[in-house]
UniProtKB/TrEMBL annotation:
Keyword Membrane: yes
Assigned keywords, A-Z: Cell membrane, Chaperone, Membrane, Transmembrane, Transmembrane helix
Principal subcellular localization: membrane
Topology in membrane: Single-pass type II membrane protein
GO molecular function: peptidyl-prolyl cis-trans isomerase activity
Protein name (record): PpiC domain-containing protein
Pfam families, per database record: Rotamase_2, SurA_N_3
Native source organism of the sequence: Devosia marina
One GO cellular component, as annotated: plasma membrane
Segments forming domain PpiC: 247-364
Family annotation (InterPro entries): PPIase_PpiC (IPR000297), PpiD_chaperone (IPR052029), Trigger_fact/SurA_dom_sf (IPR027304)
Domain of life: Bacteria
Length: 624
């Protein structure tokens, strides 16, 4: 039967039927990926496309933030588990939804507005806090942006801002809601309280042997060792190989004579400036400059605070006008120059003269440089030799001895923090090296681990100590301490309940505290978020606000202490929210409305995701 189907598929009628089937299938969904969404399109909102370049740029930013937390860039499967692709798509789709709406309203951005946005972007501000064209080009290149992409992105942002500002700029929180928030946030209470301690109860009995064994059995998961692997490690890097080099005094002297002109420390100047924003200030400083009045006097008379630009060489100053003026002044002098925002006074407060170091001063740097040069010339050859020796199953100790390299020994756990014994291993590589150690098998050839900067790491797995349950003899003291602590906590909680019952029955906290040698303390008035002095934390404050006047209760505070309290005063807000707090609340309300609005626009326009292209993009760039 299968042979018959194959023969039919090769015939003209079969090919025609196959074509109809393909078109039919395409009509039921394949076109969504192939026809409707191109291979370079990750998603579409309405008529706005989110292309692979946009997605990868946003995804990389998010992945970098995650990498700083977990120590490595997540793979595609790890990112999927964390929800990173979905979050990036949703974030980009919000902007695309607003772009769709702004296009319907024919909104635009003028070139003058784009120029203003460019000048105000702090990413491109130089030493003086003003726009620097060279820095603009440098930042775009390092971020992988073209100028056209940057201006298109800023245009999109400006149109979205126009849209949301026009719709929600004057949207404020209703007065009733603001009043409720004010009542919630600023109402205060005052309590009398005592803190119970071990002296408030009788000492608990020591646990018996049977109780210790029973507790350990019930809580065995808390008393386990972690798997530990003992390894010998050898690292080959420029730093480790350079440390094995001996540089002769003659070579150092010869290098010094050949390069001492380049070792000269350039002149550096401490520079500060003030903006002369008004004609009066300009006239005052110009008159002072002509009269020889010093800069500090003029600044004090004008009531200005100069801003420091730091101690810089002339080459470090990107503003040529500033560099020329500052390095043409004597120490203590100042000059008035033009700036983007008007004139400014530039003052040189200190000058570090250019100087040539002596041979003794330069010796350490020269030795390090020559050793690095020798290591750089040899490292590839040494790497090849070590790999050959490893392939011949030579142990780490013998290889290290042959090349004069140190061997490091560590008992490594899964976290890899013990790898700090390797001085040339960066902390961000600990996780990768520990993963390789825990993936290794004893008596098997273990490949090298390539590291940044042409460095490599090898290790011998000496011993594996698997995770196991600890015995009672090993953890007797810890188990006994845990049981005693539980009994103390239970006794304190029971005592606190008794005290609360007596307070509710009408007894005074002072009388009860006297019996326990724990005298009540009167708190300062506090809000639901605790007191300003920190003596009443958020947990105690929440418990105090759980009842009305004269409310009594007991609670474990954030330090783990048992606190018994009684409310002695309540106070409602006497003033409305201040302008700063009210504006913050209004801003939060507007942000919530904008978020709901954007979600509705996106839902109306329709979000379609090219899952096939998305998965392929992630795997190609970040691995499975």
């Amino acid at each position: 039967m299968l042979d018959g189907l194959r023969d039919f598929a090769k015939s003209w009628p079969g090919k025609i039927l196959g074509a109809f089937l393909l078109v039919g299938v395409a009509g039921f969904g394949i076109n969504n990926v192939i026809v409707d969404l191109g291979s370079n399109t990750v998603a579409r909102v309405g008529d706005e496309e989110i292309n692979s370049r946009e997605f990868l740029r946003a995804y990389q930013n998010q992945a970098n933030r995650i990498a700083r937390q977990i120590g490595s860039v997540p793979t595609a499967s790890q990112a999927e588990a964390m929800g990173i692709p979905t979050a990036v798509i949703l974030g980009l789709s919000e902007g695309a939804a607003l772009d769709t709406l702004s296009a319907q309203f024919s909104m635009g951005v003028s070139e003058s507005k784009l120029a203003q946005l460019l000048r105000e972007d702090p990413s491109f501000h130089g030493t003086l806090g003003t726009f620097e064209p060279a820095l603009f080009t440098q930042v775009l290149q390092s971020a992988g942006w073209t100028e056209a992409e940057y201006f298109e992105a800023r245009s999109d942002e400006a149109r979205r801002d126009q849209l949301t500002t026009a719709l929600f700029a004057d949207t404020d929180m209703p007065e009733v809601a603001a009043g409720l928030i004010n009542d919630y946030a600023t109402a205060t209470r005052t309590i009398d309280y005592i803190v119970l301690s071990g002296t408030s109860i009788e000492s608990p009995e020591a646990p018996t042997e049977a109780e210790l064994a029973e507790y350990l059995e019930e809580n065995q998961s808390d008393f386990r060792t972690v798997e530990t692997r003992t390894v010998k490690l050898l690292d080959l890097s420029l730093a480790s190989l350079a440390a094995t080099k001996e540089i002769s005094p003659e070579a150092v002297k010869a290098e010094y004579e050949a390069t001492k002109s380049t070792l000269t420390t350039p002149e550096r100047r401490a520079i500060e400036q003030v903006s002369l924003a008004t004609p009066e200030l300009q006239a005052q400083f110009e008159a002072g400059l002509a009269a020889g009045t010093d800069f500090d006097t003029l600044v004090a008379e004008a009531g200005l605070a100069p801003s420091s630009l730091g101690t810089l060489t002339q080459a470090e100053i990107t503003d040529t006008r500033l560099a020329s003026a500052a390095f043409g002044l004597a120490e203590g002098g100042f000059a008035i120059i033009e700036g983007i925002g008007g004139k400014r006074a530039v003052h040189v407060s200190d000058i570090e003269e250019e100087r040539e170091p002596s041979l003794d001063e330069a010796r350490d740097d020269i030795v390090a440089r020559l050793a690095q040069a020798e290591a750089r010339n040899e490292i590839n050859d040494v790497l090849d030799q070590i790999e050959e020796l490893r392939a011949a199953f030579q142990p780490i100790d013998q290889i290290a001895e042959r090349f004069g390299l140190p061997v490091y020994e560590a008992e490594v756990t899964a976290g890899g923090t013990e790898l700090a014994v390797l001085p040339n291993l960066a902390a961000e590589d600990y996780a990768r090296v520990s993963q390789a150690i825990f993936a290794a098998e004893q008596d098997r050839l273990i490949p090298s681990i390539p590291l940044s900067g042409s460095a490599h790491l090898w290790f011998d797995l000496e011993q594996v100590e698997p995770a196991r349950d600890q015995t009672l003899d090993e953890v007797r003291a810890e188990v006994e301490a845990a049981i005693v602590a539980e009994r103390i906590d239970a006794a304190l909680a029971s005592k606190a309940e008794d005290i609360v019952a007596r307070l509710e029955a009408g007894e005074a906290l002072a009388d009860i505290g006297f019996e326990l040698s724990a005298f009540p303390q009167l708190s300062a008035p506090f809000t639901r978020f605790g007191s300003e002095d920190g003596l009443v934390d958020r947990t105690v404050a929440s418990a105090a606000f759980a009842g009305g006047p004269a409310h009594a209760g007991a609670v474990l505070n954030e330090s783990g202490e048992q606190v018994v309290f009684q409310v002695v005063d309540t106070a409602e807000p006497t003033a409305p929210l201040d302008d700063v707090a009210l504006e913050s609340i209004n801003a939060e309300a507007r942000a919530g409305l904008i978020s709901e609005f954007v979600a509705a626009v996106r839902e109306d326009a329709g979000l379609r995701i090219n899952q096939q292209a998305l998965n392929q993009l992630l795997v190609q760039n970040y691995g499975q």
